[in-house]
Structures are given as structure tokens and as C-alpha cells.
Amino acid sequence: MGASGADLRGGQFRATALVMLFLLILSHSIAAATTPATLAFAISPDSPPLAFKREGVVQGLEVDLARALAAALKLQLNLYALPEPKLIDALRGGRIDLLLSGLPSAELAALGLSSSKPVLDSGQMAIIRTDDLGRFPRLIDLKLTAERVGYQRGSPGARLVQAQLPRAERVPFADANAGLIALRAGEIAIFIHAATTAWALAANPHETELTPLFQALSIEHWRFVMRTEDTQLRRDLDRVLKSWRASGRLERIIQRWIPLQIRIKDGFSLM
């Protein structure tokens, strides 16, 4: 009888433990089902019109795209603001899921990253003071200049200046805004940055001091970038982009922040 009583109590304990384990697993399953999946999207908030702060609020094309994507994929958006040089490391390290980049596909593949279909065609352009238009009438005059040329540190423009403007005195800046301020002040003669920056200046009716030279120095296809193993995310993004193009929604989102794009012997769209 004593042994049978011990066996009975042991059986009851095991049954209770199994019930508790089942309830624990069930509670975790319910929590997972009721907690929305997230999309961690990173931006660099010093690159208008792509992403920037106005009165403390982050806004821009990338922000609108991130919000629209999260809604289309039924994901909760977690938006992270990081310095541009840290974006790729954050993605590779798994701290974020997605970003928008103009890096070439081969360079992304070497980093273990993949990308969606193109979202926007851009490139690098030169911006000068309006009073200096006569100094750079041809593209060759720009490329052979020995003037002080600014660019954003760590950007595609930095690589372009080094490769295509060998005589220039190179002047790096932390962000586009710092470079444009220096250009206005006469501290540099040329600022090289993304075509999106040039288009934003051209679309501003109050801008008279600075003028973009609408000859692309490079062509960049901006895409959503994710880790190579995130194949389902890439398929979902391409599906959403295809739908947006068909409905015109992608164009409407872009036009809100880039109302003007210029085509001059390059692959840019005229809008």
C-alpha cells in the first residue's frame, strides 16, 4: 500500500507538471498570436528629402515609405534613426530588418545583403553657387577642377570625388546640411551629393543662392535592403512594390517629397 500510495502521488505530480507545462506553452502561443510582428526600419535623419527632422519630428520620403510598407505587410513599424555609416552594420548585425540604399547590388552581395526591385533612380550630382555657373560650363570643367569640393563622409559621393575629381581638394562633411552651409558661405566651391538633394533644391522656389548642375555623375538605383536570408521579406516587398507601381501609389509617395526630377542624358524620370 505504501508503494502504491507513493506511485499515486508521483503520478499526480507528473500530471500536474504536464498540465502546468501545457498552460505555459499555451500562454506563450496566445501572447505570440496577439503581439503584432514588427518591421525594424532604419533611416539617417540628416538627408533631406529622404529623411530629416523638422521641429523635432522625423519625416521624409523614407519615413513615408516605411509607414506605408508596414501597413501593407500588416506589421508594426519600429523606426530607428542612426548615423548613415552605422546603417549597414545595424542591418548585418540583426538590430534592424530593412533600410533604403543606393549601394550597388554587387557590393550588397559581398556584405551578405540582398535588395528589392528598384524604388527610385538617383545618382550623384554637383551643386554650386548660382553666381559660379559660368565657371563650370562643361562636365569636364567640373571633373578637372582643383577647387575645394565637399561631400558627405562615407557616402557614394565620397567615393565619386576620389575617383572622378583627382585634382580637387577634398573636404568631407558629417552630413548634407553641413556641406550646403559651407557652400553658401564660400568655404567650398562644389558640393557633391545625391540627386535627391539637388532635386529638392531645384523644386524650392525660394532657393536662389545654390544651383544644381543637372548632369548625373553616377547612376544609383535605390532599393530596400535586407539580409540575404530574409527571402520571404524580399518577396513580400517586391509584391507590394509591383502593386504600388500599378496603382500609382509609389509615384504619389515619391512626388510628395521629390516633386521634380530631371532627365539629362541619364536614367532619371521627368516628373
How does this model look, in words?
It is a single chain. By secondary structure, the chain is α+β, with helices and mostly antiparallel strands. It has three domains: 1-35; 38-120 and 222-257, Periplasmic binding protein-like II (D-Maltodextrin-Binding Protein, domain 2), CATH 3.40.190.10; 124-213, Periplasmic binding protein-like II (D-Maltodextrin-Binding Protein, domain 2, 3-Layer(aba) Sandwich), CATH 3.40.190. It contains ten helices and 14 strands. The chain has a five-stranded mixed β-sheet with strand order 11-10-12-9-13, sandwiched between helices. Strands 6, 7, 8 and 14 form a four-stranded antiparallel β-sheet that branches. A hairpin with a 2-residue loop joins strand 3 (51-54) and strand 4. The radius of gyration is 26 Å and the shape is elongated. Residues 30-35 and 264-271 have low confidence and may be disordered.
Briefly summarize what is shown.
This protein is of the alpha+beta class. 44% of the residues lie in helices and 23% in strands. The chain has helices at residues 2-34, 61-72, 84-92, 105-110, 139-143, 156-164, 176-184, 195-203, 231-247, 249-257; strands spanning 38-43, 46-47, 51-54, 57-59, 76-81, 99-101, 113-115, 120-122, 124-129, 148-152, 169-173, 190-194, 210-213, 220-227.
